[in-house]
Amino acid sequence: MYKLLICEDESLERNALNLLIQRHYRNIHLVGYATTGFEAIKLAHQHLPDIILMDIDMPQCNGLDAQKKICRFLPNVNTVIITAYNDFTYAQQAIKCGVIDFLLKPIAPNDLYNCLDKILKSIQKTDSASAVPPEYTDYIQKILDYIDYHFLDDLNLSDLASKFNLNEKYLSRYFKQKMGTSFTEYIIKLRIERSKNMLEYSDAPIYEIAADLNFNDASYFTKVFQKKEGVSPSQYRKNVGKSQPSRL
Which of 40, 89, 118, 243 is most buried by a 10 A CB count? Predict the structure, then answer.
């Protein structure tokens, strides 16, 4: 799962970016929103994101200055500048700050997807070249990577075993031994974690979130969520809202 930070002071832009990403990418986790340049630096230091979407016109500290400071402790971060200005001068400055791409407002969904697709391919290529894990670790990691990308589909243990040419019962034991939990519980955990992210960073209704996460219906989603988190999805959203400053 790749971590992404959105740095944008306009609430409509933030929410639009979040919804586009959540619905299109299953291997990207939104770690938070920054509404000022200083907050962008703070959250980048706290979460160490793989990708940053950085508005150039940020209060307190503009996007390029924030990027310069972030690069000091996160030199390999993949930062994309969001700007309303198609200005070559900005492009020159941004390249010097380690920015790898630009998105012009208003952002077209396909432009965002093409940009993120390139970044993900680059990260995955780098990870593959630098990581040489032991055979068994590599095998479980391949399984986990596949699950991370498909956990919102109707993925079951039989399909997973077939994909990796394994006996279903063997895979069940192997997975529980390596992960300390069953395959089914692991899938539910991933979906609940994604739902918490959507409850916190979007205004989507509960039934829509349940559908996006491939739960049978909203009532079942609520039951599972409450069992795992101790509160209902709507109460979780209220609690998170009270603990954070206004995003408007």
Answer: 40
> For the chain, what are the domain ranges?
2-130, 135-180, 185-243
Q: Cα separation of 107 and 16, whole Å?
A: 9
pTM, entire model: 0.58
106: closest CA among 173, 10, 186?
Answer: 10
Superfamily of segment(s) 185-243 = Homeodomain-like (1.10.10.60)
Q: Say how far apart CA 48 and CA 210 lie, in whole Å.
A: 29
* Predicted confidence (pLDDT) per residue in 35-60, tens digit: 999 999 999 998 889 999 999 888 88
Query: By C-alpha distance, which of 14, 20, 80 is closest to 52?
Result: 80
pLDDT tens for residues 65-75? 999 899 888 88
User: Closest Cα to residue 19, out of 39, 9, 33?
Assistant: 33
- Contact between 117 and 96 under an 8 Å Cβ cutoff? The reply is no
What distances in angstroms separate CA 122 from CA 96, 118, 241, one per listed residue? Answer: 20, 6, 35
5, 40 contact by CB (below 8 A): yes
| Paired tokens of 104 | 């012009």
Which CATH fold topology does 2-130 show?
Rossmann fold (3.40.50)
